[in-house]
Amino acid sequence: MIELFHAHASTCSQKVRICLAEKGLDYVSRPINLGTFEHLMPQYLEINPNGVVPALRHDGGVVIESTVICEYLDEVFPQDPLSPPDPLARASMRAWLRFIDEVPSMAVRVPTFQNLVLPAYQRLSRDEFDRLADSMPVRKQFIMRMGQDGFSSTEYQGSIEQLDRSLRRMEKALGNGPWLVVDAYSIADICVLPVLHRMEEMGMAAMWQADLAKVTDWYARACARPSFGTAFYPESKLAFSFPALRALHPA
Ligand SMILES: N[C@@H](CCC(=O)N[C@@H](CS)C(=O)NCC(=O)O)C(=O)O
């Protein structure tokens, strides 16, 4: 049995749900409510000591880190492979995965928290805020940098620049073929797709639609795959939790 501890609208959870759908795997859904900070409760920290989603339980073990989970699933369930067979191409895919984890996945958190999550933190007293931040195993410094007044404009602008550079790197890679690594849809495409989807939800799609034709085409093709519809069910949309966004995305 595969159990997925995830949050509906979390980009890292979306990566794993796309991967499960691509491989046609059923799983038992264990939703974790980030709004009530269920991910920081002792019971969940036993599963993922980093206090973040997702986590996968399978075969008596737990796998954490969304990218690692995708690679694990691809290894254990070889049907519909999502990694190229050639070692050099696999290395290229892994280099993309490191880059995606380190740069765009980190960067997209800044506008997400600044524009959507910050008000919840502003409702806390200073003392409650400090205690909450202190209880975060890996996100304390990030939350402290945001504080209750938001990120500095240097950090905010820096994250937008990182997203822009990531999109441009994708545009260049897509000059060599339809997907990021050689000719086949791979875990690299899966891992960056939720970042672009989150940007689109926040009204930032012009960052590629304006002048990155290959990324625009890649995004349309990635979203047209059946796995996208399976992973991005209605509750997974930010507009479900943040009604103000509905104006940007009329149903
Ligand atoms: N590197 C981790 C990052 C996981 C992560 O940051 N998850 C976010 C949701 S996308 C989370 O749990 N956030 C909770 C919080 O920041 O309080 C992974 O890829 O699994």
In brief, what are we looking at here?
With 251 residues, this protein is of the alpha+beta class. It contains 14 helices and four strands. The chain folds into two domains: 75 residues, Glutaredoxin (3-Layer(aba) Sandwich); 144 residues, Glutathione S-transferase Yfyf (Class Pi), Chain A, domain 2, CATH 1.20.1050.10.
Task: Give a written overview of the molecule.
With 251 residues, this protein is an alpha+beta fold. The chain folds into 2 domains: 2-76, Glutaredoxin; 87-230, Glutathione S-transferase Yfyf (Class Pi), Chain A, domain 2. It is built from 14 helices and 4 strands. The protein has helices at residues 11-22, 42-47, 66-76, 87-102, 104-107, 109-122, 126-134, 140-146, 153-173, 187-201, 206-209, 213-224, 226-231, 238-241; strands at 2-6, 28-31, 55-58, 61-64. Strands 2-1-3-4 form a 4-stranded mixed β-sheet, with helices on one face. Helix 1 runs parallel beside helix 3. The radius of gyration is 18 Å and the shape is globular. The two termini are 35 Å apart.
Q: What is the CATH top level name of the largest domain?
A: Mainly Alpha
By secondary-structure content and strand pairing, the structural class works out as: alpha+beta
Name the beta content range: 5-15%
Which fold does the CATH topology of the largest domain refer to? Glutathione S-transferase Yfyf (Class Pi), Chain A, domain 2
List the domain count as a whole number: 2
Q: pLDDT average, as an integer?
A: 95
Order of strands, main sheet, comes to 2-1-3-4
Give me the number of helical elements: 14
- Percent helix range: 55-70%
How many β-strand stretches? 4
Principal-axes geometry comes out as globular
Span between N and C termini? 35 Å
